Please model this.
Amino acid sequence: MTIFSNLVVGQPIILKEDIREHLPYDVEIDDFASLNAGDFAHRYGQSKVEVVSEMRCPVWFSVSPKTKKRQQYWKVAQANGEIKYVLPDEIFSLAKIGHHNKNFDRWVHLDFIIADMELMDSDRNLMRKHPFTFQCPLTEQWVRYSTIRGNFVLQTLPYKSNIGKRGIVDPDDMQLVMNMGHLNQWNSKFYKSKHGIGYLVSPMMKPEYSISKKLNATAWEYHNQTWPPSFTEGVQDFYYIPLSYFEPYGIPTSELDPQTIHVLNWTVTGCDDLIRANL
Model:
């Protein structure tokens, strides 16, 4: 069975073109296929997984399979919203997500998160027409961004905006979602033409904000000089953080594990020979 035939929606992958672009000058790309794990490690002093992980290659996500003129493709997307179509021999390996950056510049307030099974057809049709409502194929939930004046996405920057040990978000409690509206990291522009990928998160403590941040001041003034709420279920508040804010990269893995959403302290998993078998 090839990697391509095992793909499911939401599976992180690494592409061969990115391996070629980021490959160190002293590593031969053919050695990934021609050398077994032991021989590769003996030649380079590192495993294949270690070499690829240090490249910090972009991580792509499988979105949907396509067939055109009897040729099978997968539509894939990465955190910056870019979309492309790849053939079976263009995939290097399955991957986990690594985060180069633990901080996030802002999070998105939400009006609601609702399971698709709870909707009537008429409600579902209204959801599809709403410009700031999105359905995630991984969770089968609908998510709606909160807005200001109807057409600006409501975002704020809390204190401790970090997924580290002292941050406001637990890195092991972030739900990967896809098909969201794509937000530019630097200017907050909203792009319908790009693919949004990120995390639904629930803070570990009550968020606090600095009024000196322009982003926060705008939200505070719009909500009559109070901090705007976000969707709450039980005692938990939920927000959305675009994955691009964490500068993600791909770490090869031997496991077909689309649920994996966070890697900080990782170890070699013995997937070197799997890489070799699929090249």
Residues 255-279 have pLDDT under 50 and may be disordered. Residues 107-246 form one domain. The chain has two domains: 3-100+247-277, 107-246.
